[in-house]
Amino acid sequence: MAQPIADRRDVDFVLHEQIGTVDHELFEQFNKKTVNLIVSEARKLAIKEILPTFKDGDEIGCTLENGKVTTPQSFKRAWKLFCEGEWLAMCDDPEVGGQGMPKTVGCAALEYMVGANSAFMLYYGMTHGASKLVEAFGNETQKKLYMKKMFAGQWGGTMLLTEPEAGSDVGALTTAATLNDDGTYTIQGTKIFISAGEHDLCDNIIHPVLARIEGAPAGTRGISLFLVPKYLVNEDGSLGEFNNVVCTGLEEKMGIHGNATCTLALGDKGPCIGTLLGEENKGMSAMFQMMNESRAFVGVQGFAVASAAYMNALDYARTRVQGRHLTAGKDATAKNVTIINHPDVKRQLLNMKVYTEGMRSLHYYYAKCEDIVHTTDDEALKANTAALIEVLTPIVKGYITDKALEVCSHGVQVYGGYGYCKEFPAEQLMRDSRIFMIYEGTNGIQAMDLLGRKLSMNNGQSFVYFLDQIRKTIIEAQKIEGLEVLFEKVELALDRYDVVAYEIGARARSEKVLNAYAFAHPFLEITGDIVFAWMHLWRACVAAPKLAEKVGSLDPEAVAAKVGKNKEAAFYAGVMASARFFINTLLPGSYGKMDAILEGDSSVEDILDVSFGSK
Amino acid sequence: MAQPIADRRDVDFVLHEQIGTVDHELFEQFNKKTVNLIVSEARKLAIKEILPTFKDGDEIGCTLENGKVTTPQSFKRAWKLFCEGEWLAMCDDPEVGGQGMPKTVGCAALEYMVGANSAFMLYYGMTHGASKLVEAFGNETQKKLYMKKMFAGQWGGTMLLTEPEAGSDVGALTTAATLNDDGTYTIQGTKIFISAGEHDLCDNIIHPVLARIEGAPAGTRGISLFLVPKYLVNEDGSLGEFNNVVCTGLEEKMGIHGNATCTLALGDKGPCIGTLLGEENKGMSAMFQMMNESRAFVGVQGFAVASAAYMNALDYARTRVQGRHLTAGKDATAKNVTIINHPDVKRQLLNMKVYTEGMRSLHYYYAKCEDIVHTTDDEALKANTAALIEVLTPIVKGYITDKALEVCSHGVQVYGGYGYCKEFPAEQLMRDSRIFMIYEGTNGIQAMDLLGRKLSMNNGQSFVYFLDQIRKTIIEAQKIEGLEVLFEKVELALDRYDVVAYEIGARARSEKVLNAYAFAHPFLEITGDIVFAWMHLWRACVAAPKLAEKVGSLDPEAVAAKVGKNKEAAFYAGVMASARFFINTLLPGSYGKMDAILEGDSSVEDILDVSFGSK
């Protein structure tokens, strides 16, 4: 197998034909040829260097001894090459050591790398997120001392939010910061679930830490952000003493064993010194500014792992011979066929295909929105697009990671009994994927964010802008021959969705607020369904004319008969099949969910704790 | 926590109030008091002896050395006590050493034991299934030598079907049986994925083996069944020589590590002798007679593990304090609440509750059907009920295990980050549950069985009988005050379902057969939805009058206000909440799926292999 991570043809389709890259002088040097070269290089690194760490991460995992965490040996080489290739800051400003790529292109590179080993790439995700925090909020000294080394991956980064009694409820945290005479702070507290909290891939680790300055207000309004290095950094940038950030435990987890999930004790065995990052008591708002990026990265993890699950299952289904074709009947001479020929296996593969493609299109679109915000001079467009990103974030994080687990589970099922065994990657991909629904804000939190904040932000105008983008694609589809049935169905669903969104939004502001939030997750689900229908309709808009040109028809049977060995025609036929399958077969399931939200059954609010049962 | 496996009040409700036990002289001694005693004893054994093996099974697992498999130490004591309590043959004929309990009661006992450790109880499941094979097809010698010891758990049992090139396609197997002069057979071949294939819990293991006698017809028509002991058995019942059934490998799996999944080489290192069980070339039909039982057992595994996931999550949600109540708004004095008070957590718990309860009711109903078949003199009822069991089997196995994974996944989510860690049982329950969708016929096979065999068996009359049972409950519900909305919705859904079943059945017999089978799994899903709606309506029929009597109203708000400390009222209110939630909020999702089946989009048939993508 050449590589089991992503379908390069579909990557190119989304990158060059559907979503496209932003045309701006900042991206001048990234013409199609260069972009393709970059994607190929990322793919090569992913296959040759990162993929071989996948099993090591799971089987060897991370070990803790005397406060030091050791990652698998193969991780070191992969990390070194990843950093040497300057991938860590591929989309960042050249001034901070970045390569200034469009985010869409970065998306393609990440897709391969994360799909090769999501636990390994979490070291990247944490480091990049922390680097951006220093870039956005650091003072000159902090930037000078930390930033470039972090963007280069020489030093790692993390994010220290969660405490034993403060998980989703960040405002409850108790880690204390005490001002010292020299303007630094002494930090004391315990943080848990710290991804990449301690490891041996980097010379130093820089921890952004949420803590409370003595006397600060209660709740989230009294939280400040600090930069706390593992080793203190001298003025000349050299490493000083150990700063008493002690890893006291590693979580034993269902998956992503290759990433160290640490309990960190700060300042228990000696002074732990940090410097204020940004303003006092503004820690939460700083965090929120980074949140879109980190949530989108978790979405990329879900997507890339789902894509890998699909490619592996497809490969297996194409080679595994078992059973005769359903239509063979009693013909004793009929030969056994590859299992991709069995309708139920095919249905599962098509399911995996449509979700993977929907995820890909949405991610690249999201990335393009970021590029637009970064480059446009049109203030209205910039503001609208920035808001659109916020609206899309819970879908990118919540819906995609929910569906990623489903795709990975299908991936196990396609293999039959082998899918449950460690001999094939399917079961690890599924175990790894289960965390994506939880970290960076559980999907319940994402659903509340969509309903409680995104639906009503800017007086609902941002949500209207979001729906308008979908309508634009519907109008586009109306002009294209052969998409009649599809666009009508998406339009009907969108009209219905519009009613539901309005109704649940009103409910959330009424005395029925508890009822509204009981349906927050179903609302996230139908929103995701609509967005994926949009993405598939959009893909069909691009593919339909090209397919018609190549085979002279869009009729599925005629197409199947004429595709022959024309790989391009086969590809576009696949895009059309996905759109049809999603819109005709999966989207209808949304209607019932929409009805249920409108009906708003009160069982969730009404049921008493005691009625849930007893032992 | 007293026990985290099953809700005893709901067990009693299903056992005594909803489904009830069969009234027959064979079950005379099992009055309510005795039944409750049995359930309590099973519960005690499950909690005190089996539950402590749960983690051992996962962490220590099974090890293979020199062909011998060692199970965790704690398994030995649990197995010994399980066998001493005569639980293995609890529902079997006293003549074979059984206790002759009704299956409904056995269902309750199993629920606790399997929920405590499904991997451990798989040793029971395999042994019991093999014992029944000997009982049904053994000659006098085989019965005398093997049967009682197997039913007593002194000797274990297995089932040797699968081979490397013959998984779901059993007919392709190649294990060879050669007749010896003394009437025995020499067996040679390799079997894989053998649950409980080799272990140290029993003195001997008796393997029913599917093999092909030299010269037998190709395919399933040439397969015979043999009894192959691990150690040969002398005429006096004592153990003879090792019979060359060699465990050459253990599968490394995602879960159920406590059960040894073996590769067994038969006759590679010396003669391996078996005796024919039943008739030559009738091995498959013998297997099929056992299949309902083994598939139902996998359904019990799914159900019991889901129930355990629910009880654990409920316990956690009731004790874990985090965040303020949604309605606390900006009230700074509002205290944090237990997470069961957060609408999204409550929604997830209610989801887990309704599926667990639906599974429980369906399982006990299925068991009661078995009791009816076993005891009734009414030939028509016997035949109809036997057929109903066959119709229900793919739902009990396929739908329940699909939903069990979902319930277990919710179970992880309720814990947040802790759910992903091994500190709590949630993640293991989810990993364990993933196999249930695969073994004993993948759920794709179950879906094909429902569509291809069960829908049309006895010219469709058995399916009509099945639908009639649902209609009976609807008619019953019409007579009960307060169920108007619920029964109308179930009736509407059933009418719609009826149309879909007829249409997809006709399609399966037409030239559109591939299209029909592409929708086999969605058809299984909607069938399961309808069955669960039925079960919940039935439960409501029982609970509504009792609740009305206790609190004078069925209005959810009024009920919530009046329940107070009345535990019984709280329980019935919970039954009603489940019914409302399932029928009002989850069942509508089925409509869209039904529409999609009727529309019958052709993408799955049309898409070419090459259009699935490339690397």
UniProtKB/TrEMBL annotation, chains A, B:
The lineage of its organism: Bacteria, Pseudomonadati, Thermodesulfobacteriota, Desulfobacteria, Desulfobacterales. Residues 159-266 form the Acyl-CoA oxidase/dehydrogenase middle domain. Keywords: FAD, Flavoprotein, Oxidoreductase. It comes from the Bacteria. SUPFAM superfamilies: Acyl-CoA dehydrogenase C-terminal domain-like, Acyl-CoA dehydrogenase NM domain-like. Homotetramer. Residues 37-153 form the Acyl-CoA dehydrogenase/oxidase N-terminal domain. GO terms for cellular component: plasma membrane. This is Acyl-CoA dehydrogenase. Residues 281-450 form the Acyl-CoA dehydrogenase/oxidase C-terminal domain.
